[in-house]
């Protein structure tokens, strides 16, 4: 009984999404969800969802394979630096220009309104991965 109650509470908390962004990339969709912890701290939940089809025609069964990563505020900078390093390495090994624009998690200008910040984040995010 106690296990079911705890599972229900975790599922309820899992639904508390403050902000969300979906990125469609081929057969995968990446969800970037900002969620609230028990003590009201915000964190990032990254979910990869991949469609799986088993069988053919009317016998086909569709399921979604999901993988999650939780990234907490205190780790943003190290994660961002590591991600940038790995992407630069991959680009240099693949013969691409390793000096593409860096992804910026936050706006550097506090005077920008929310829409301008979101537009810049979106552009810098896709620019970071080579999708302008």
Can you give a write-up of this model?
The protein is an alpha+beta fold and 132 residues long. The protein has a domain at 2-73: Nuclear Transport Factor 2, Chain: A. The protein has three helices and four strands. A four-stranded antiparallel sheet has the order 1-2-3-4, with no helix packed on it. A hairpin with a 5-residue loop joins strand 2 (28-36) and strand 3. The termini are far apart.
Neighbour order of strands in the largest sheet: 1-2-3-4
Low-confidence stretches: 105-112, 121-132
Distance between the termini: 51 Å
Structural class: alpha+beta
CATH arch. level architecture of one domain = Roll
Mass-distribution shape:
flat
What is the tally of beta strands? 4
Question: CATH fold name of one domain, please?
Answer: Nuclear Transport Factor 2, Chain: A
What is the CATH C-level name of one domain?
Alpha Beta
Instruction: Spell the H/E element sequence.
Output: HEEEEHH
User: In percent terms, what proportion of residues is strand?
Assistant: 25-35%
Strand count, sense and closure of the main sheet? 4 strands, antiparallel
Helix segment tally? 3
Overall mean pLDDT stands at: 77
Radius of gyration: 18 Å
Approximately how much helix is present in the residues? 25-40%
């Amino acid at each position: 009984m106690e296990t079911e109650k705890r599972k229900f509470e975790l599922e309820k908390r899992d639904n508390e999404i403050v902000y969300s962004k979906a990125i469609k990339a081929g057969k995968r969709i990446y969800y970037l969800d900002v969620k609230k912890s028990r003590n009201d701290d915000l964190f990032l939940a990254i979910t990869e969802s991949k469609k799986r089809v088993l069988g053919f025609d009317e016998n086909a069964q569709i399921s979604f394979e999901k993988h999650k990563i939780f990234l907490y505020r205190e780790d943003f900078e190290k994660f961002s630096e590591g991600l940038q390093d790995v992407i630069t390495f991959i680009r240099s090994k693949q013969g691409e220009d390793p000096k593409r624009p860096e992804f910026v998690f936050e706006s550097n200008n506090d005077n920008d309104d929310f829409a301008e910040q979101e537009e810049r984040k979106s552009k810098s995010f896709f620019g970071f991965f080579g999708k302008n």
